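quick one
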Amino acid sequence: MPEMPERQVGEAGSPKHYRSRTDDLPDQVGNVGRRTMDEIAEDIVASQGKSMISLGPLEKVYVFWLAGMSCDGCTVAVTGATEPSVEDLITGSIPGLPLVILHHYVLQLEAGDHYIRTLELAEQGKLDGPYVIVYEGSIADETLTAGCDPFAAEGALPLWAPSEQRRRIATAEWVQRLAPGAAAMIAIGTCATWGGIPAAYGNVTGAMSVMDFLGKEYRSALGLPVVNIPGCSPVGDNFTDAVQSILLFLQGLGPLPEFDELGRPAWQFSDTVHRHCVRAGYYEEGTFAKEYGDKECLVEVGCWGPVVNCNITEKGAISHMGGCMNAGGPCIGCTMPGFPDKFAPFYQSPPGSLISSNASRLMGSIIRPLRRISQRERNREIRWHNIIPSGWAAERGKETLTHRIVELFYNKMQFGGGNRPGRRLPEDEFSSGYRPLPEEAYGENYQVLPEERIKRRVKRE
Ligand code: SF4
Ligand code: SF4
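structure w/ iron/sulfur cluster:
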Protein backbone atom coordinates (compact mmCIF):
# COMPACT_ATOMS: atom_id res chain seq x y z
CA MET A 1 0.00 0.00 0.00
CA PRO A 2 1.51 3.40 -0.97
CA GLU A 3 2.46 5.67 1.88
CA MET A 4 -0.05 8.49 2.42
CA PRO A 5 1.44 11.97 2.04
CA GLU A 6 1.51 14.11 5.14
CA ARG A 7 -1.46 16.47 5.27
CA GLN A 8 -0.53 20.02 4.34
CA VAL A 9 -2.33 23.34 4.08
CA GLY A 10 -1.32 26.88 3.26
CA GLU A 11 -0.61 29.10 0.32
CA ALA A 12 0.82 27.48 -2.76
CA GLY A 13 4.54 27.15 -2.49
CA SER A 14 4.62 27.70 1.25
CA PRO A 15 3.11 24.56 2.76
CA LYS A 16 2.57 24.46 6.49
CA HIS A 17 2.58 21.18 8.37
CA TYR A 18 -0.31 20.35 10.62
CA ARG A 19 1.10 20.69 14.07
CA SER A 20 -1.25 21.62 16.83
CA ARG A 21 -0.46 22.94 20.26
CA THR A 22 -2.74 20.15 21.48
CA ASP A 23 0.05 17.74 20.46
CA ASP A 24 1.89 18.76 23.62
CA LEU A 25 -1.12 18.07 25.83
CA PRO A 26 -2.29 14.76 27.23
CA ASP A 27 -4.51 12.87 24.83
CA GLN A 28 -8.18 12.71 25.61
CA VAL A 29 -11.17 10.90 24.16
CA GLY A 30 -13.31 13.32 22.22
CA ASN A 31 -10.59 15.56 20.89
CA VAL A 32 -10.74 13.82 17.53
CA GLY A 33 -9.88 16.90 15.48
CA ARG A 34 -6.49 17.31 17.17
CA ARG A 35 -6.66 20.97 16.19
CA THR A 36 -7.67 24.07 18.09
CA MET A 37 -10.34 26.42 16.79
CA ASP A 38 -7.83 29.23 16.22
CA GLU A 39 -5.53 26.91 14.25
CA ILE A 40 -8.42 25.75 12.09
CA ALA A 41 -9.58 29.34 11.52
CA GLU A 42 -6.10 30.38 10.40
CA ASP A 43 -5.88 27.34 8.13
CA ILE A 44 -9.18 28.28 6.51
CA VAL A 45 -7.94 31.82 5.86
CA ALA A 46 -4.68 30.50 4.41
CA SER A 47 -6.43 27.91 2.24
CA GLN A 48 -8.46 30.74 0.68
CA GLY A 49 -5.22 32.32 -0.44
CA LYS A 50 -5.66 35.19 2.02
CA SER A 51 -3.08 36.46 4.43
CA MET A 52 -3.82 37.57 7.99
CA ILE A 53 -2.98 41.22 7.31
CA SER A 54 -5.37 43.27 9.40
CA LEU A 55 -6.71 46.73 8.55
CA GLY A 56 -6.77 47.72 12.22
CA PRO A 57 -5.09 47.04 15.52
CA LEU A 58 -6.80 43.64 15.94
CA GLU A 59 -5.78 40.58 13.97
CA LYS A 60 -7.94 38.06 15.78
CA VAL A 61 -10.57 38.06 18.50
CA TYR A 62 -11.55 35.08 20.62
CA VAL A 63 -15.26 34.70 21.31
CA PHE A 64 -16.23 32.41 24.18
CA TRP A 65 -19.86 31.39 24.05
CA LEU A 66 -20.98 30.24 27.49
CA ALA A 67 -24.36 28.71 28.26
CA GLY A 68 -26.22 29.02 31.52
CA MET A 69 -29.86 28.09 32.02
CA SER A 70 -30.78 28.09 28.37
CA CYS A 71 -32.77 26.09 25.85
CA ASP A 72 -30.15 26.55 23.06
CA GLY A 73 -32.64 28.66 21.10
CA CYS A 74 -30.16 31.53 20.89
CA THR A 75 -27.56 29.21 19.38
CA VAL A 76 -30.07 27.97 16.81
CA ALA A 77 -31.05 31.55 15.95
CA VAL A 78 -27.46 32.78 15.58
CA THR A 79 -26.31 29.86 13.46
CA GLY A 80 -29.11 30.84 11.05
CA ALA A 81 -27.95 34.46 10.79
CA THR A 82 -27.13 35.69 7.31
CA GLU A 83 -26.23 39.38 7.57
CA PRO A 84 -23.48 38.65 8.37
CA SER A 85 -23.39 34.92 8.94
CA VAL A 86 -21.33 33.14 11.57
CA GLU A 87 -19.37 31.60 8.68
CA ASP A 88 -18.48 35.10 7.43
CA LEU A 89 -17.10 36.00 10.85
CA ILE A 90 -15.09 32.85 11.51
CA THR A 91 -13.51 32.66 8.07
CA GLY A 92 -12.32 36.26 8.00
CA SER A 93 -14.55 37.02 5.00
CA ILE A 94 -15.59 40.54 6.02
CA PRO A 95 -13.06 43.15 4.90
CA GLY A 96 -11.48 45.00 7.79
CA LEU A 97 -12.75 42.70 10.50
CA PRO A 98 -10.37 40.68 12.62
CA LEU A 99 -10.64 36.92 12.42
CA VAL A 100 -13.21 35.64 14.93
CA ILE A 101 -12.14 32.48 16.78
CA LEU A 102 -15.42 31.09 18.04
CA HIS A 103 -15.43 28.76 21.03
CA HIS A 104 -18.90 27.31 21.18
CA TYR A 105 -19.90 24.12 22.93
CA VAL A 106 -21.80 22.90 19.86
CA LEU A 107 -19.38 23.98 17.14
CA GLN A 108 -16.11 23.44 18.97
CA LEU A 109 -13.44 21.07 17.65
CA GLU A 110 -11.76 20.51 20.99
CA ALA A 111 -13.53 18.60 23.70
CA GLY A 112 -12.99 17.84 27.38
CA ASP A 113 -10.03 19.56 29.02
CA HIS A 114 -8.74 20.70 25.64
CA TYR A 115 -11.89 22.77 25.30
CA ILE A 116 -11.59 24.33 28.75
CA ARG A 117 -7.89 25.02 28.35
CA THR A 118 -8.45 28.05 26.11
CA LEU A 119 -10.75 29.56 28.76
CA GLU A 120 -8.01 29.07 31.30
CA LEU A 121 -5.44 30.71 28.99
CA ALA A 122 -7.83 33.64 28.56
CA GLU A 123 -8.16 34.11 32.31
CA GLN A 124 -4.37 34.00 32.65
CA GLY A 125 -3.97 36.62 29.90
CA LYS A 126 -2.00 34.19 27.73
CA LEU A 127 -4.02 34.39 24.53
CA ASP A 128 -2.56 36.15 21.50
CA GLY A 129 -5.63 38.38 21.11
CA PRO A 130 -8.47 39.96 23.10
CA TYR A 131 -11.53 37.92 23.99
CA VAL A 132 -15.25 38.56 24.13
CA ILE A 133 -17.72 36.64 26.30
CA VAL A 134 -21.13 35.77 24.90
CA TYR A 135 -23.55 34.41 27.46
CA GLU A 136 -26.71 32.49 26.56
CA GLY A 137 -29.29 31.61 29.23
CA SER A 138 -29.79 33.08 32.66
CA ILE A 139 -27.31 32.81 35.51
CA ALA A 140 -28.42 30.67 38.43
CA ASP A 141 -27.65 31.57 42.01
CA GLU A 142 -25.18 28.76 42.60
CA THR A 143 -25.07 29.42 46.35
CA LEU A 144 -28.45 27.66 46.43
CA THR A 145 -26.88 24.37 45.35
CA ALA A 146 -25.07 24.25 48.71
CA GLY A 147 -21.90 22.52 47.54
CA CYS A 148 -23.61 20.09 45.18
CA ASP A 149 -23.13 20.10 41.43
CA PRO A 150 -23.97 23.47 39.84
CA PHE A 151 -27.25 24.17 38.06
CA ALA A 152 -25.25 25.02 34.92
CA ALA A 153 -21.61 24.12 34.41
CA GLU A 154 -18.92 23.97 31.75
CA GLY A 155 -15.85 21.76 32.23
CA ALA A 156 -13.91 20.91 35.35
CA LEU A 157 -10.74 22.18 37.02
CA PRO A 158 -7.90 21.57 37.58
CA LEU A 159 -7.28 20.32 34.06
CA TRP A 160 -6.12 16.71 33.66
CA ALA A 161 -6.07 16.24 37.45
CA PRO A 162 -7.33 12.96 38.97
CA SER A 163 -11.10 12.95 39.19
CA GLU A 164 -11.22 13.20 42.99
CA GLN A 165 -9.39 16.55 42.80
CA ARG A 166 -11.62 18.01 40.15
CA ARG A 167 -14.79 20.02 40.51
CA ARG A 168 -17.24 21.14 37.87
CA ILE A 169 -17.11 24.84 37.10
CA ALA A 170 -20.40 26.72 37.03
CA THR A 171 -20.81 28.97 34.03
CA ALA A 172 -21.56 31.71 36.56
CA GLU A 173 -18.04 31.19 37.91
CA TRP A 174 -16.57 31.45 34.42
CA VAL A 175 -18.37 34.78 34.02
CA GLN A 176 -16.95 35.98 37.31
CA ARG A 177 -13.43 34.92 36.35
CA LEU A 178 -13.43 36.12 32.76
CA ALA A 179 -15.56 39.30 32.92
CA PRO A 180 -12.81 41.66 34.19
CA GLY A 181 -10.49 40.88 31.27
CA ALA A 182 -13.13 40.62 28.54
CA ALA A 183 -13.04 43.19 25.73
CA ALA A 184 -16.84 42.99 25.69
CA MET A 185 -19.54 41.06 27.50
CA ILE A 186 -22.53 40.24 25.33
CA ALA A 187 -25.71 38.79 26.82
CA ILE A 188 -27.76 37.08 24.15
CA GLY A 189 -31.43 36.18 24.46
CA THR A 190 -33.97 37.26 27.04
CA CYS A 191 -32.74 34.83 29.71
CA ALA A 192 -29.26 36.36 29.64
CA THR A 193 -30.43 39.95 29.22
CA TRP A 194 -33.27 40.13 31.76
CA GLY A 195 -33.65 36.68 33.36
CA GLY A 196 -36.37 35.40 31.04
CA ILE A 197 -38.29 32.19 31.56
CA PRO A 198 -35.90 30.64 34.13
CA ALA A 199 -36.39 33.76 36.28
CA ALA A 200 -40.19 33.75 35.99
CA TYR A 201 -42.57 33.43 38.92
CA GLY A 202 -41.95 30.18 40.80
CA ASN A 203 -38.23 30.14 39.92
CA VAL A 204 -36.30 28.10 42.50
CA THR A 205 -32.82 28.63 41.07
CA GLY A 206 -32.50 32.36 41.79
CA ALA A 207 -31.98 32.81 38.03
CA MET A 208 -30.97 36.29 36.95
CA SER A 209 -29.54 38.20 34.01
CA VAL A 210 -25.86 38.80 33.28
CA MET A 211 -26.36 42.51 34.01
CA ASP A 212 -27.90 41.71 37.41
CA PHE A 213 -25.12 39.24 38.14
CA LEU A 214 -22.27 41.62 37.29
CA GLY A 215 -23.97 44.79 38.50
CA LYS A 216 -25.15 47.83 36.58
CA GLU A 217 -21.76 49.51 36.96
CA TYR A 218 -19.82 46.70 35.26
CA ARG A 219 -17.57 47.83 32.42
CA SER A 220 -15.52 45.54 30.23
CA ALA A 221 -11.75 45.93 29.75
CA LEU A 222 -12.57 48.28 26.86
CA GLY A 223 -15.07 50.28 28.91
CA LEU A 224 -18.29 48.80 27.50
CA PRO A 225 -21.33 47.98 29.65
CA VAL A 226 -22.98 44.57 29.21
CA VAL A 227 -24.32 44.56 25.63
CA ASN A 228 -27.86 43.17 25.73
CA ILE A 229 -29.42 41.51 22.69
CA PRO A 230 -32.78 40.24 23.90
CA GLY A 231 -35.36 37.98 22.28
CA CYS A 232 -36.77 34.55 22.98
CA SER A 233 -35.29 33.44 20.72
CA PRO A 234 -33.45 36.56 19.48
CA VAL A 235 -33.12 37.56 15.85
CA GLY A 236 -29.80 35.93 14.93
CA ASP A 237 -28.84 38.81 12.65
CA ASN A 238 -29.11 41.24 15.59
CA PHE A 239 -26.27 39.40 17.27
CA THR A 240 -23.93 39.08 14.28
CA ASP A 241 -24.71 42.65 13.23
CA ALA A 242 -23.86 43.96 16.73
CA VAL A 243 -20.63 41.93 16.83
CA GLN A 244 -19.68 43.27 13.41
CA SER A 245 -20.40 46.87 14.46
CA ILE A 246 -18.37 46.55 17.67
CA LEU A 247 -15.43 44.98 15.81
CA LEU A 248 -15.48 47.64 13.08
CA PHE A 249 -15.37 50.30 15.78
CA LEU A 250 -12.48 48.58 17.56
CA GLN A 251 -10.62 48.46 14.24
CA GLY A 252 -11.13 52.19 13.80
CA LEU A 253 -13.26 51.54 10.70
CA GLY A 254 -16.72 52.34 12.00
CA PRO A 255 -18.51 54.78 14.32
CA LEU A 256 -19.01 54.11 18.02
CA PRO A 257 -22.10 51.87 18.18
CA GLU A 258 -24.92 53.49 20.12
CA PHE A 259 -26.51 51.61 23.00
CA ASP A 260 -29.64 52.57 24.92
CA GLU A 261 -29.85 52.87 28.71
CA LEU A 262 -30.40 49.12 29.00
CA GLY A 263 -27.36 48.27 26.86
CA ARG A 264 -29.38 47.32 23.77
CA PRO A 265 -28.00 48.29 20.35
CA ALA A 266 -30.02 51.46 19.82
CA TRP A 267 -30.25 51.04 16.05
CA GLN A 268 -31.96 47.68 16.57
CA PHE A 269 -34.25 48.30 19.54
CA SER A 270 -35.37 51.94 19.53
CA ASP A 271 -38.50 51.32 17.46
CA THR A 272 -41.57 49.35 18.43
CA VAL A 273 -42.77 46.21 16.69
CA HIS A 274 -45.92 48.05 15.69
CA ARG A 275 -44.17 50.78 13.70
CA HIS A 276 -42.89 48.32 11.12
CA CYS A 277 -45.59 45.66 11.39
CA VAL A 278 -47.08 44.32 8.18
CA ARG A 279 -50.50 44.66 9.85
CA ALA A 280 -50.07 48.26 11.04
CA GLY A 281 -52.27 49.54 8.18
CA TYR A 282 -55.18 47.48 9.50
CA TYR A 283 -54.69 48.97 12.96
CA GLU A 284 -54.70 52.45 11.51
CA GLU A 285 -57.94 51.76 9.61
CA GLY A 286 -59.49 50.25 12.73
CA THR A 287 -59.94 46.64 11.56
CA PHE A 288 -58.95 43.84 13.93
CA ALA A 289 -58.58 40.08 13.80
CA LYS A 290 -61.26 38.18 15.67
CA GLU A 291 -59.41 34.89 15.67
CA TYR A 292 -56.03 33.44 14.69
CA GLY A 293 -55.65 33.12 10.97
CA ASP A 294 -57.40 36.43 10.25
CA LYS A 295 -55.28 38.83 8.25
CA GLU A 296 -56.03 42.00 10.24
CA CYS A 297 -54.25 43.56 13.23
CA LEU A 298 -53.82 41.13 16.12
CA VAL A 299 -54.10 43.56 19.03
CA GLU A 300 -57.47 42.22 20.17
CA VAL A 301 -56.17 38.66 20.26
CA GLY A 302 -53.24 39.62 22.46
CA CYS A 303 -50.64 41.68 20.57
CA TRP A 304 -48.39 43.94 22.66
CA GLY A 305 -46.57 45.27 19.56
CA PRO A 306 -47.36 48.98 20.05
CA VAL A 307 -45.27 49.11 23.26
CA VAL A 308 -42.61 46.47 22.64
CA ASN A 309 -39.05 47.26 21.49
CA CYS A 310 -38.22 44.68 18.83
CA ASN A 311 -37.16 44.81 15.19
CA ILE A 312 -38.37 41.43 13.98
CA THR A 313 -40.90 43.23 11.78
CA GLU A 314 -37.97 44.81 9.92
CA LYS A 315 -35.47 41.97 9.93
CA GLY A 316 -37.72 38.91 9.89
CA ALA A 317 -36.76 35.80 11.82
CA ILE A 318 -34.12 34.60 9.36
CA SER A 319 -32.94 36.22 6.15
CA HIS A 320 -35.75 38.79 6.20
CA MET A 321 -38.35 36.04 6.21
CA GLY A 322 -40.86 34.99 8.85
CA GLY A 323 -41.29 36.78 12.14
CA CYS A 324 -44.21 36.84 14.52
CA MET A 325 -46.90 38.87 12.72
CA ASN A 326 -45.85 37.60 9.29
CA ALA A 327 -46.48 34.10 10.58
CA GLY A 328 -49.79 35.08 12.21
CA GLY A 329 -48.64 35.35 15.83
CA PRO A 330 -49.29 38.32 18.12
CA CYS A 331 -46.37 39.90 19.96
CA ILE A 332 -46.05 38.54 23.50
CA GLY A 333 -43.20 40.89 24.43
CA CYS A 334 -40.42 38.30 24.44
CA THR A 335 -37.65 40.93 24.08
CA MET A 336 -38.78 42.91 27.12
CA PRO A 337 -37.58 43.04 30.72
CA GLY A 338 -40.14 41.22 32.87
CA PHE A 339 -41.04 38.71 30.16
CA PRO A 340 -42.92 36.41 30.60
CA ASP A 341 -44.66 37.51 33.83
CA LYS A 342 -45.39 41.11 32.81
CA PHE A 343 -47.04 39.99 29.56
CA ALA A 344 -49.06 37.08 30.94
CA PRO A 345 -51.64 35.79 30.42
CA PHE A 346 -50.75 35.55 26.75
CA TYR A 347 -53.23 35.89 23.90
CA GLN A 348 -55.52 38.30 25.68
CA SER A 349 -56.08 41.86 24.63
CA PRO A 350 -53.56 44.09 26.51
CA PRO A 351 -55.46 46.45 28.85
CA GLY A 352 -53.93 49.56 27.25
CA SER A 353 -55.32 48.64 23.85
CA LEU A 354 -58.89 49.35 24.98
CA ILE A 355 -58.49 53.08 24.39
CA SER A 356 -56.20 53.08 21.37
CA SER A 357 -57.88 50.35 19.32
CA ASN A 358 -61.34 51.83 19.89
CA ALA A 359 -60.05 55.27 18.85
CA SER A 360 -58.69 53.66 15.64
CA ARG A 361 -61.99 51.89 15.11
CA LEU A 362 -63.91 55.18 15.33
CA MET A 363 -61.53 57.05 13.04
CA GLY A 364 -61.33 54.10 10.68
CA SER A 365 -65.12 53.98 10.25
CA ILE A 366 -64.89 57.41 8.58
CA ILE A 367 -61.58 57.05 6.75
CA ARG A 368 -62.08 53.55 5.34
CA PRO A 369 -65.09 54.26 3.06
CA LEU A 370 -63.46 57.45 1.77
CA ARG A 371 -60.27 55.57 0.93
CA ARG A 372 -62.20 52.82 -0.90
CA ILE A 373 -63.83 55.42 -3.14
CA SER A 374 -60.46 57.04 -3.85
CA GLN A 375 -58.91 53.65 -4.39
CA ARG A 376 -61.46 52.74 -7.05
CA GLU A 377 -60.97 56.07 -8.78
CA ARG A 378 -57.15 55.66 -8.72
CA ASN A 379 -57.57 52.22 -10.29
CA ARG A 380 -58.61 53.78 -13.60
CA GLU A 381 -56.18 54.90 -16.31
CA ILE A 382 -56.83 58.39 -17.70
CA ARG A 383 -56.94 57.15 -21.27
CA TRP A 384 -59.60 54.57 -20.40
CA HIS A 385 -62.03 57.46 -19.99
CA ASN A 386 -61.82 58.19 -23.69
CA ILE A 387 -60.91 56.20 -26.75
CA ILE A 388 -58.60 53.37 -25.75
CA PRO A 389 -60.25 50.17 -26.94
CA SER A 390 -60.04 48.32 -23.64
CA GLY A 391 -63.73 48.56 -23.00
CA TRP A 392 -63.35 50.52 -19.77
CA ALA A 393 -64.56 53.71 -21.45
CA ALA A 394 -68.06 52.23 -21.45
CA GLU A 395 -68.05 52.52 -17.64
CA ARG A 396 -67.65 56.25 -17.86
CA GLY A 397 -71.32 57.01 -18.05
CA LYS A 398 -72.17 54.68 -15.17
CA GLU A 399 -70.10 56.42 -12.52
CA THR A 400 -71.93 57.57 -9.45
CA LEU A 401 -72.11 61.15 -8.36
CA THR A 402 -69.78 60.36 -5.44
CA HIS A 403 -67.11 59.13 -7.80
CA ARG A 404 -67.39 62.19 -9.98
CA ILE A 405 -67.05 64.41 -6.91
CA VAL A 406 -63.96 62.47 -5.82
CA GLU A 407 -62.41 62.78 -9.27
CA LEU A 408 -63.08 66.48 -9.29
CA PHE A 409 -61.61 66.71 -5.77
CA TYR A 410 -58.36 65.10 -6.88
CA ASN A 411 -58.14 67.14 -10.05
CA LYS A 412 -58.58 70.36 -8.10
CA MET A 413 -56.38 69.43 -5.15
CA GLN A 414 -53.64 67.58 -6.96
CA PHE A 415 -53.21 69.64 -10.10
CA GLY A 416 -54.58 72.94 -8.88
CA GLY A 417 -57.41 72.72 -11.42
CA GLY A 418 -54.99 72.41 -14.36
CA ASN A 419 -54.37 69.47 -16.63
CA ARG A 420 -52.90 66.20 -15.47
CA PRO A 421 -49.34 65.71 -16.67
CA GLY A 422 -47.81 62.54 -17.98
CA ARG A 423 -50.43 61.35 -20.49
CA ARG A 424 -51.52 62.59 -23.89
CA LEU A 425 -55.22 63.14 -23.73
CA PRO A 426 -57.21 62.15 -26.82
CA GLU A 427 -58.17 65.81 -27.22
CA ASP A 428 -54.49 66.61 -27.71
CA GLU A 429 -54.19 63.95 -30.34
CA PHE A 430 -57.19 65.25 -32.27
CA SER A 431 -56.37 68.93 -31.97
CA SER A 432 -52.79 68.47 -33.11
CA GLY A 433 -53.81 66.15 -35.89
CA TYR A 434 -51.71 63.41 -34.34
CA ARG A 435 -53.15 59.87 -34.45
CA PRO A 436 -50.96 57.10 -33.11
CA LEU A 437 -52.80 54.36 -35.03
CA PRO A 438 -55.30 54.22 -37.91
CA GLU A 439 -58.92 54.24 -36.74
CA GLU A 440 -59.51 50.61 -37.75
CA ALA A 441 -56.74 49.49 -35.42
CA TYR A 442 -58.89 50.38 -32.41
CA GLY A 443 -61.50 47.76 -33.30
CA GLU A 444 -65.15 47.87 -32.35
CA ASN A 445 -64.51 49.54 -28.99
CA TYR A 446 -63.35 52.71 -30.70
CA GLN A 447 -65.22 55.78 -29.45
CA VAL A 448 -65.29 59.10 -31.21
CA LEU A 449 -64.98 62.03 -28.88
CA PRO A 450 -67.86 64.49 -29.05
CA GLU A 451 -67.13 67.36 -31.46
CA GLU A 452 -67.97 70.06 -28.98
CA ARG A 453 -65.48 68.64 -26.43
CA ILE A 454 -62.68 68.85 -28.97
CA LYS A 455 -63.71 72.40 -29.90
CA ARG A 456 -63.80 73.41 -26.23
CA ARG A 457 -60.35 72.07 -25.72
CA VAL A 458 -58.92 73.76 -28.84
CA LYS A 459 -60.55 77.07 -27.85
CA ARG A 460 -59.03 76.87 -24.35
CA GLU A 461 -55.57 76.42 -25.80
S1 SF4 B 1 -50.46 43.00 14.95
FE1 SF4 B 1 -49.54 44.01 16.77
S2 SF4 B 1 -47.74 45.05 16.00
FE2 SF4 B 1 -49.01 44.53 14.24
S3 SF4 B 1 -50.31 46.30 13.88
FE3 SF4 B 1 -51.45 44.99 15.25
S4 SF4 B 1 -50.93 45.70 17.30
FE4 SF4 B 1 -49.39 46.52 15.92
S1 SF4 C 1 -42.59 40.58 17.93
FE1 SF4 C 1 -42.85 40.31 20.13
S2 SF4 C 1 -43.02 38.09 20.45
FE2 SF4 C 1 -42.16 38.43 18.39
S3 SF4 C 1 -39.92 38.40 18.63
FE3 SF4 C 1 -40.54 40.53 18.84
S4 SF4 C 1 -40.90 40.84 21.03
FE4 SF4 C 1 -40.85 38.65 20.68
